Amino acid sequence: MDADLLHRVDRGLDRLLGAPRDVDGGTPVPDVSPEPQDADEALRALFEQYREGYVYLHGHCLRWWRGCIASAQQPGMSRDEALDEAYAQRAAGPASAPEFVWFIRHFWLRVDALNRTLPLERRVAPQDLLLGWLAEAGDDESVELATAMPYWPIGLDDAGQWC
After folding, report:
1. Residues 6+ apart with CB under 8 A from 19
2. What does R_g of the chain's alpha carbons equal in angstroms?
3. Burial class of residue 135, CB neighbours in 10 A (0-12, 13-18, 19+)
4. What is the mean pLDDT of the chain?
């Protein structure tokens, strides 16, 4: 794990994969999403586009985060104290980068829009595609970045739809 990250990936996986199932709303999805190889072709293609985004975003988010740590460091402060201060200002660490928050929201809403065109049994829960499939693919760096988020940057509108 990167020395500038202070979260446990396994706990982040459990939290982010489970939390949306506790929310009443959103497009209905099956209790268990299809495995990637059994999922609808359009969802698989969307997942590949999503993974491609990480090629750029991972490095960008880590550089951005190191800048946040450097800007938090005051004279006489150790690097660990600066790291703690940076986390106090941005609890999601590198996943707080505005571009990353947009990226996650963008793909969550694209998964949701695509799900609404599919029969229930072919749908994939957005959190399963955005995080579960990354983990299954062994994309450890991407999973490490995503699990820095304390929660998904998504909500429900007045009609109970993801927004």
Report:
1. 127, 151, 152
2. 17
3. middle
4. 92
Per-residue H/E/C for the chain: CCCCCCCCHHHHHHHHHHHHHHCCCCCCCCCCCCCHHHCCHHHHHHHHHHHHHHHHHHHHHHHHHHHHHHHHCCCCCCHHHHHHHHHHHCCCHHHHCHHHHHHHHHHHHHHHHHHCCCCHHHCCCHHHHHHHHHHHCCCHHHHHHHCCCCCCCCCECCCCCEC
**pLDDT tens digits, 23-73:** 889 999 999 999 999 999 999 999 999 999 998 899 999 999 999 999 999
Q: How confident is the model at residue 10 (pLDDT cuts 50, 70, 90)?
A: confident
Query: What is residue 65's predicted lDDT score, i.e. its pLDDT?
Result: 94
